[in-house]
Amino acid sequence: MKQGPGLLFVVSGPSGAGKDTLVDALLARSPQLRYSVSATTREPRPGEIEGQHYFFLTREEFERRREAGAFLEWRDYNGNLYGTPRDYVEQTVAEGYDVIMKPEVNGALAVQRAYPAAVLIFLVPDRFSYLGERLLARRTETNEEIAHRLEIAHQEMEFIRSFDYIVINEQHRSEEAVEDLAAVLHAERFRIHRYTDDRLRSVEHT
Amino acid sequence: MKQGPGLLFVVSGPSGAGKDTLVDALLARSPQLRYSVSATTREPRPGEIEGQHYFFLTREEFERRREAGAFLEWRDYNGNLYGTPRDYVEQTVAEGYDVIMKPEVNGALAVQRAYPAAVLIFLVPDRFSYLGERLLARRTETNEEIAHRLEIAHQEMEFIRSFDYIVINEQHRSEEAVEDLAAVLHAERFRIHRYTDDRLRSVEHT
């Protein structure tokens, strides 16, 4: 019964909520979990491996696939195109692995439209002041840039209701947030709507 | 954010699925979890404590409260009345504790109607043969009684779709089922619909 296809988890939220650290921690502890590999038109950097870090595509090939609906979401960042290939997700899930990705909020909502079975988790820092502090701690942005980011973060909050879960990443308690996320990943497979009628019948008649 | 009211969890399923053992194991490991104390018209047995094992009521008082809608579900068993007091659940949940109960399937569905925020978990043994074996192992029932119980169990299965989760209690792997249930209890508090608009605003504006 516990076999069967995996699930797609989408972790998003305001910048600085700690997505990267938490998703890395989940991947490190969950052999059943795979990171969604993105496609990109940017040049490979030294050490980057095709199919592991990215699928590297020419712009022409990326656009052709995009028109064919091959991406769950895509975006233009710094003049390069990035996208989430639907076939990678579908194959990996069919093999029984769960897949996790961490797009921006707009990307998460696009994934939800393209792949309604996806489970969307909104990750928030405990306080916006904390978010501001983390961005300040990066020391790479001006106060104006930070104010702009906070404004965007507030806008992103309006989309929370489209998500399935909210997990709070409290300062100095990220192990707790990892446990919270792990519980969501664990529990989701038992939700009744994950069971097709055929799977339910197999429960009834074995 | 993690404070706030608790949740009501209803664990049900066919007889012999192992509800008692698993719910006891959950209560032993979760200080935040309380067992729902039932009301009954039967006589207290030696050692039974009012308000801990049961709320002991006269039949007259039980019926008066039942008419007043004081029970989330009730049933007549062996000539005695048993019911789940709504006020105990509501008070305990308001104090921030989660509450767990393990009624029969019909009782679980009655609780869902009376308390729509309840989380219903359907617990099934891995195989019906296993269910038969467990009932046989009790050595207190005739084969005819067992066949009747299995028939009822099959009927109960038809109600599965009304539940929120299915958890399988596989033979010799009940620790796994405890982990599965614990993950459901843990994850449910992060579901987006647990957040009132006020709580969401507190996330946005703190």
Would you write up a description of this structure?
Two copies of one chain form a homodimer. Chain A is of the alpha/beta class and 206 residues long. The first copy, chain A, has a single domain, classed as P-loop containing nucleotide triphosphate hydrolases (Rossmann fold, 3-Layer(aba) Sandwich), CATH 3.40.50. Chain A is 43% helix and 21% strand. Chain A is built from eight helices and nine strands. The first copy, chain A, has a five-stranded parallel beta sheet, with helices on both faces. Chain A has a four-stranded mixed beta sheet with strand order 4-3-6-5.
Report the mean per-residue pLDDT of chain A as an integer: 87
N- to C-terminal separation of chain A? 11 Å
Q: Determine the structural class of chain A based on helices, strands and strand pairing.
A: alpha/beta
CATH architecture of chain A: 3-Layer(aba) Sandwich
The string of secondary-structure elements of chain A, in order, is EHEEEHEEHEHEHHEHH
